[in-house]
Amino acid sequence: MKQGTLNSKIVVLLLLAAVVLYLGVSAWQSFRDPFSTALTYSYTVDDSMEATGFLVRQEQVLTGTGGVVEVLPQEGEKVSRGGTVALLYQDSSGLERREELEQLELEKEQLEYAIDRLDQGGGDSSQLSQQVLDAIVALRSCVASGDLTGLESRSMDLKSLIYKREYAFNDTEEGESAAQLQAALDSVNSQISALSAQAAQNTQRVTASQSGVFSGYVDGYESLITPDMLDTITPSQLDQLSAQRPSADGTAVGKLVTNSTWYFVCALDQADAERLIEGRSVTVRFSRDWSGEVDMTVERIGDTENGRSAVVFSTDKFLSDTTLLRRQTVELVFDSITGIRVPKQALRVDQQTVTDEETGEESQTSVPGVYTLVGEQAEFKPVTVLYEGDSFVLVEPADSNRKSLRAGDVVIVASDQLYDGMVIQ
Prior knowledge:
The protein is an alpha+beta fold and 425 residues long.
C-alpha cells in the first residue's frame, strides 16, 4: 500500500509540473509574440443610469364579499363596461355548480354539433383532426412554458374538439339517431336551466362600471399615489412612499386600469435631471420583474429639492404587460452608440502626406486608424473614434470603400513597428 501511494503521488506531481510548464511556455510565447491580434466585432454602448421609482396608473379597486371568489378575466385582459369580473359564491358548492354548468355547456355544444352534422350529412372530419392536433400542440406549449393562466380553457377546447371528432367519425347508421341526439340535448338544456336558477340565488357578480384593463394585483398603493398627484409630487414624498408598507383591501377581488396612459415617477440627482428635456422621449429599460424597453415621454421635471428633482415619464404602450409592476428599478437610456469594438492598444495614429488640390502643396496630417491582418500583410485602415472605454474603443470607418474596416476583421494589437503592406510572419 505504501509503495502504491508513493507512486500515485509521483504521478500527480509530474502531471502538475507538466501543466505549469505548459502555461509558462504559453505565457512566454505570448509576451515574445510581436504581432498579437484580436478579432473585431459590432458593439453597442449605452449612455444610461439606474433609477428607482413607482409605476402610476388610473386604477379602480373592485370589491366584493363571498365565501369563494372566482376571478374570470386573465391578468392584463381588457374588460368592457358592464362585463363580469368575478363571481362570488356563498360556499364551495357554488363553485362546484359553476364547474358542472361549464361541463353541461360543453356537452350541449357537442350535441348541437352532432345534430348539425347529421342534417348536413357529415363532412369535415379531416379538418377536425388538424384542429385536434393544433389544440394538443397549444396545450403542450402552455404547460412547457409554465403559463398556466389559460390551461383550463385550452383543456376544455381540446376536450370539445375530441368529442366533435368522435361524432364526425361515427357511422350514422350505427350511431345515435337524430331523435336520440335531440332528446339528449333537451335533457342537457333542462339541467342547465335548473342549475342556472339555483346559481342565481347564491351567486353574486362583480361587474365593471367602466371599461379598462384588469389586474388581480391589489397592493394598497392604488389610493396612495395617483396620476393627479404627479403634477406636484416631490422627492421627499417619494421617499415617504418608499418607506411605507401599505396593506391591500381584504375585500378586493382585483382592479381596473381605466386609462391607457401610465406613468413612471422617480427622484433623480439634479445633474441627471438636467440632461432631460420635457416633451422629449427617453428609453426606459425594465429588466427585473418584466423584461422590455419602453419609449416614454418626459412629462415633468420638478423643482430641485435638496439636490434632487422628481421626474415623471409617461407612455400608452405595454400597459397589459406591466399591470403587476409597482416599485421598480429601471435603466434610463439617454443615448446608444454602436460601432466596431477594437482593443485600445490597436488604435494608432499614422502620419500621411496630403496634397492640396488647388495649390499642390503637400502637408503631413495625423490619421487615426488600425492595422488589420489581410493574408500575410498589415493593412492600415483609417477610422473615426466614436467612444473610448477603459480597455477598448468604438470606431467606424473613416471612409466607405471595399477596404474599409468591418466587423470581423483581425486587427494587430501589439508590434514594435508597423507600416502599410508589411509582411507578417
